[in-house]
Design goal:
2 copies of one chain form a homodimer. The first copy, chain A, has 15 helices and 17 strands. The first copy, chain A, is of the alpha/beta class. In chain A, the strands form 2 sheets. In chain A, strands 7, 8, 9, 10, 11, 12, 13, 14, 15, 16 and 17 form an 11-stranded mixed β-sheet that branches. In chain A, α5 (90-99) packs parallel to α6, α8 crosses α9 (180-190) and α14 runs antiparallel to α15 (404-416).
């Protein structure tokens, strides 16, 4: 058994500084668990000037270097914690660390969702641990529960609200009745959205996360590029109002399902029933809902981002890896993507749809649009018609579950109708 | 590495038959994970006639014995799964199994909450695993997330809805406006409550569960007898209506908190704010809400009981133990009750209270009761007064947070007032 387990920290930003703080604050408690001191031996940052800019942590300058490879190659370091984020240089550092025989803990969803196969394969071949609890859901324990706690189950679906920024924006739109742009600006002012919020708003962040969750849930590699995505930029204030009238709330949903035809993995705004456990997940909170054949429905809820929540997950991984080191059990629970499974084309997915149409407010309009749906094989579940101004009306349709292909066919027919001005929005309804 | 890991199953009731089913159904998937066949080698039941009574599972009679000790002593068996429930003979079997060097997986909250110290001590000394994910929250992964996933945190509180029967009864009372007795009868008719539902209704089941959670969360042994408890039998239909008016819902809350004066561990009906994540947990669902210094608030939600949900948790433990056997790491993550911490007396706990009083409907009543509260050092947050019939009124008080001692003092003073008929109910308010 080791007396010291040495950590090399790559990155001292939001998550890195949180890890630094927790390892100091909880030193005694963690030592009790791993029977060794968990010490950060070296920290790599990009530029020494970063230290001046931030009051995040008080750190001994002698610990800090701008040469990450020096840390990776240091034979005294047992665990490399990568909290730089983004693709490069993070991916290269993780790869080098594994090659050098280091265990790696990372919060990097982007690297894992794009290069998971390469990195997990390398880790398995080198017999080292590659842990990533913080990559999805911030501090919420979800990776280990899915990988271990629910192992008795054949998982049929995982769906979640996994991006706090977009959830905050949609919650503001719901509560204040404001537009997407106004809500986003407020989120940026409040610090809940980055200045360039495109990764969040366009669904890239959520897509990487659902790729990771799907890979575990279905024992098959799903990469970020396999995930269909739509952002929240097109959600209109009236969509939110109509959703409410119909008993739904709009969330940016990350969803992964398996059926006999393959995997259905996507991120897009979706209407979910107000009584669904995910519907009440507001603001910066995240939740991941899992359905298994034995356990039924389970949900994991908490803060999906932030320095200390994410660091909480990183430190739990550090403790797991440290225990593995102590008991010589590293590299045992590796990649579980045993199978290859096809990801369905969007044309083949089946769901219900909300379709908001602006049309002339005159007799026969509803009949024409309904016929266009019917001719495309789309059956309607409900319709609301409202006069908006002068001779215009908004028509809100909810379809029964149907193949996306048929919906797109109906869309083509509807836009050609002379009574129709435009289809203002189409949002999938996930019950 | 073993090719076969043999399981001895003690009990073939609700949970046992679920374990049997899952191990058969998921044989291939589980083998892939543990690199060995997980086989039930023997099953102990109380009486062979049980086999005729039930259509639960198709089982080869040659596997079945009424002699549990035969299984426990069988040198070919690696893991004993105890799903008999109740104190004896379960406790004795677990003890013997550990003494014989067997690893044990149990769903038995009662044994763990009462004899945990003895059993975990024995397991640690013998270097065997004693796993118990199914003892709290049915299929919801909560033990491992609390023990491992949230290890970076100093936990300040754990509170949950951990008994499905009482939650179903309270949900019925809320939705149907019926009395406790009527709701309980319906729960029994629907199969959500046992014929003798006293263990659930009086809070014993929840008390055992919160004792287990508190022991892990605070690294200090809490036993079932340390837990203050009140059942739901005294909750009145009008309590539920007033709660709703005040923005609360009544749940049987199992709660464990730590502050500088010690632990506060209790089970009782409580009003919780409608916007709290626990408030929406209805029917037979369970949820456990945890607050940690780094992670903030997290919640775990799912079905708290039932054959397959509970068996899902048991099987996840079997897989963990089997992996430990394969990698020779058994007995490593044992008891984490490193400290001794005092459990507070109820007189010393601090919370808010709802107090429902029946009094004469005449002037000066409110002033007299308010003065009695004030004289006992209890400050009032709100009051509702309603005429009920003829010259009677119901007065609903909500206090600010105060020591329970002061509330009891106020209670004594109020019942002595000539204008007061009786205090109909007192319910703690947990925000």
């Amino acid at each position: 058994m080791k007396k010291n387990i040495n950590i090399g920290l790559l990155g001292l930003g939001t998550v890195g500084s949180g890890v630094f703080k927790i390892l100091n604050k909880r030193k005694g408690a963690l030592k009790r668990l791993v029977e060794a001191d968990l010490a950060i031996k070296k920290v790599a940052i990009k530029d020494m000037r970063e230290l001046k800019d931030r009051n995040l942590v008080k750190i001994d300058k002698k610990l800090v270097t701008t040469n990450a490879m020096e840390i990776i190659k240091d034979p005294d370091i047992d665990i490399i914690v990568e909290v730089i984020g983004g693709r490069e240089p993070a991916r290269g550092f993780i790869k080098e660390a594994i090659k050098t025989g280091k265990h790696v803990v990372t919060a990097n969803k982007e690297v894992l969702a794009n290069f998971g196969e390469e990195l997990f394969g390398l880790a398995d071949s080198k017999g080292v641990d590659l842990y990533f609890e913080a990559s999805v859901g911030g501090g919420i324990p979800i990776i280990a529960p899915l990988k271990r706690g629910l192992v008795a189950n054949k998982i049929s679906q995982v769906k979640g609200i996994v991006n706090g920024t977009t959830n905050y924006v949609l919650t503001r739109m719901y509560e204040d009745g404001c537009s997407f742009k106004t809500a986003l600006k407020e989120a940026q002012r409040e610090g809940f959205a980055e200045r360039d919020a495109s990764q969040d708003v366009e669904g890239n962040d959520a897509a990487a996360k659902i790729a990771i969750l799907a890979s575990i849930a279905f024992n098959a590699r799903v990469t970020a590029k396999d995930v269909y995505k739509e952002g929240i930029g097109r959600v209109l204030p009236q969509d939110i109002i109509y959703a409410d009238e119909m008993g739904y709330v709009i969330k940016l949903l990350a969803l992964a399902r398996e059926d006999k035809d393959g995997l259905d993995v996507r991120v897009h705004p979706a209407m979910i029933p107000l009584e669904h456990p995910l519907a009440g997940v507001d603001g910066v909170y995240n939740a991941i809902f899992v359905e298994g054949d034995s356990v039924g429905e389970v949900m994991f809820f908490g803060k999906g981002a932030g320095s200390l929540p994410a660091a909480s997950a990183v430190v739990s991984d550090i403790v797991e890896v440290a225990r593995n080191i102590q008991y010589e059990r590293c590299g045992k629970i590796g990649c579980t993507c045993f199978e290859e499974k096809p990801v369905k084309k969007m044309d083949d997915i089946i769901t219900s749809y909300y379709v908001l149409i602006q049309a002339a407010d005159k007799s026969g309009v509803l009949a024409k649009i309904s016929k266009a749906f019917g001719d495309a094989g789309v059956s309607l579940a409900s319709v609301i018609q409202k006069r908006t101004w002068k001779d215009k009306a908004e028509l809100v349709f909810e379809t029964h579950p149907v193949k996306e292909h048929n919906l797109r066919e109906a869309q083509k027919r509807i836009v050609k109708l002379d009574v129709v001005d435009s289809i203002l929005n189409i949002i999938r309804v996930e019950t």
